[in-house]
Design brief:
alpha+beta; two-stranded antiparallel ribbon; about 10% strand
Length: about 350
């Protein structure tokens, strides 16, 4: 998730949205979904490349037509650029496959013609005992054989080139896919990838009858920290916490930045005791370091995280599992933060109360 997208999921988002609508009305820009996305990015990142280009167009008196909006989105909005990359790779792949198909068709025609020539030669040899005629047939067959051999060699070379090109396009599409499912700030998986993986893990758990735990982790008092030190330093803290989580999230575990300062982890086939131990390890490591501001080396103090986890019941939906993990996280927050809580303990405490 980019810094702008993080800002648009924070407490300033409503002010940014209202400011964007005011600017759109002032410049007579229709509040379509695409225009709204462009102008909220403009307000959230006034020094960014998109803002500079919009400012330039406004200064020139350019009307904000749909065509211009689409061009701006393709150039500056991550999702639009991603869709364009996928379309371009798909077009190249289609052209490559069409070229190979044509080469194969040409080879088939040549082989069919060669087959007919062989049939004709057989008839000529059966009908003629004349040495000169036989020599002529053999010479013709030799020439046809060389021609087909040459065309087959050309086809083999073309197929080798095409294989290399398809491999390159496959790697490119895989990189596009990784970019689409990776959070830009932390290099963990993003929310979209997490949602897909959680659904997949739940389906796999039902099929195999295996256990599954879900954990939600949140940086304590992060808004106050951001207000004191600024978003750039806040991003530094998010990256630090993500690095700690990433170190313990080896496969088959799955870690993601869920949004803002919140993270989520999936633990397939692991017991609640192991998950609690893992979350405690993360909590201790995060709180054990005194952080310094990278730009000035100022002492930022320590950061703590709260977490909650839930063990999935048989056939439980991913939505219900997430709700119980969130409830466990809130239990950690209510009881003083910098803690690990399980959904089972949170439910027991609520019933006791």
């Amino acid at each position: 998730m980019s810094d702008v997208e993080t800002t648009l999921r924070g407490p300033e988002a409503y002010k940014i949205a209202r400011r964007a609508l005011d600017l759109m009305e002032r410049h007579q820009v229709w509040p379509t979904a695409l225009n709204f996305e462009l102008w909220t990015h403009f307000v959230a990142d006034p020094d960014g490349a998109l803002a500079r280009e919009l400012t330039r167009l406004i200064s020139l008196g350019e009307p904000m037509t749909e065509i211009i909006s689409e061009e701006l989105a393709a150039a500056y909005l991550p999702k639009a650029r991603l869709n364009e990359q996928i379309r371009d790779a798909g077009d190249l792949l289609s052209k490559e496959l069409a070229s190979v198909s044509q080469a194969i068709q040409n080879a088939q025609k040549s082989n069919a013609a060669f087959g007919k020539q062989l049939d004709g030669a057989t008839k000529d040899l059966n009908a003629n005992a004349d040495v000169g005629a036989i020599k002529s047939v053999v010479t013709s067959l030799a020439q046809a054989t060389r021609r087909v051999h040459k065309e087959n060699q050309s086809l083999e070379a073309r197929l080798a080139e095409s294989t290399a090109e398809v491999d390159r396009l496959r790697e490119h599409l895989e990189q596009v896919r990784r970019d689409a499912t990776t959070d830009g700030l932390t290099n963990l998986a993003n929310r979209k990838a997490f949602d897909e993986e959680l659904d997949r893990a739940c389906a796999e758990g039902d099929e195999a009858g295996s256990s599954l735990c879900l954990a939600v982790l949140d940086i304590d008092h992060f808004k106050g920290f951001n207000d004191t030190w600024g978003h750039q330093t806040g991003d530094q803290v998010i990256r630090y916490v993500a690095s700690v989580i990433g170190r313990v999230a080896a496969m088959p575990r799955f870690a993601a930045r869920y949004g803002g300062e919140e993270f989520a982890m999936i633990f397939p086939r692991e017991s609640a005791a192991i998950v609690a131990s893992c979350l405690e390890e993360i909590r201790v490591e995060v709180s054990s370091r005194t952080l310094k501001r990278r730009s000035t080396n100022e002492d930022l103090g320590t950061i703590t995280i709260s977490s909650g986890f839930a063990e999935r019941a048989r056939d439980e939906s991913s939505h219900s599992l997430m709700e119980r993990a969130d409830a466990a996280l809130y239990a950690s927050k209510r009881s003083g933060r910098n803690k690990v809580s399980s959904a089972a303990d949170a439910a027991a405490s609520a019933n006791a109360a």
